[in-house]
Amino acid sequence: MFAALVAVLALVLAGCTNNESDEGSAGGAASSSKAVEATKVDSIAALVPEPIRQSGQLIVGVNVPYSPNEFKDPSGKIVGYDVDLMNAVAAVLGLKPEYKEADFDKIIPAIQQGTYNVGMSSFTDSKEREQQVDFVTYYNAGVQWAQQAGGNIDPNNACGKRVAVQSTTVEDTDEVPAKSKACTDAGKPAIEKVKFDSQDEATNALVLGKVDAMSADSPVTAYAIKRSDGKLEAAGGVFDSAPYGYPVQKGSSLTQALQQAVQHLIDNGQYKQIAENWGVEAGAIQKSVINGAVS
User: Fold this and answer.
1) For residues 128 and 25, what is the distance between their CA atoms, to the nearest angstrom?
2) Omega of the bond prior to 68 within 30 degrees of 0, cis?
3) CATH top-level class for 142-241?
4) What is the pLDDT of residues 273-285, one digit of tens each?
């Protein structure tokens, strides 16, 4: 029993590891040596609001961990796909990003208040959120469920099952509740949604068998499965694809600056390189837009 517990704990901790070089050599996440070196584009940098431009810093609100998009390496440094892309975007703008950790649901209010210049935490660009902030799209992700290996969970018929989600994500606020309502409307038991403050906690709950399944954004689920050493597998395919976006204070010219910076990186191929480094190229986009919500 002790050996089994050690094995489980080792797996749980593996979900918090970073992009070490051995992982990169095994075809997993990118090695830090693959960082893309973007350069300033004066015409785009000129769109940055004067106070931000003068400070030389881009204050970025982020919630971790949400591997492989944003999480901490063993030294405590925030790394991930989102981080590498934001580093490149900031370089195009002639700025240095400064990452500030916050609860996921506090980032958008902090942007509205001017505490952060931009949010970077795998935000789905939705019509509801666009009422609060503007968004610059940079990726396209869907929802995907995971289950323990050998499971038989159907996301469209998970009535009565315990499903882990990260609190305040789209899976928590929209997707799982809609599926649960379909269950109760059909006279079946509701889905028991189990909320966690972080995605790592949700994933670990599934690994330990405390829940029947988890629902998360497709790149996050794929990464969790890849890192689980065969303990987890997909439960169904990817559905409900929608854009990720950077939330920005409404009406700020920083929105145009960010959109043009992302598009510049798409056009010169560095965006694709960053996505490939992290193995998330399936959701790469060809055009960045402002307020591109589909629902």
Assistant:
1) 41
2) yes
3) alpha beta
4) 999 999 888 899 9
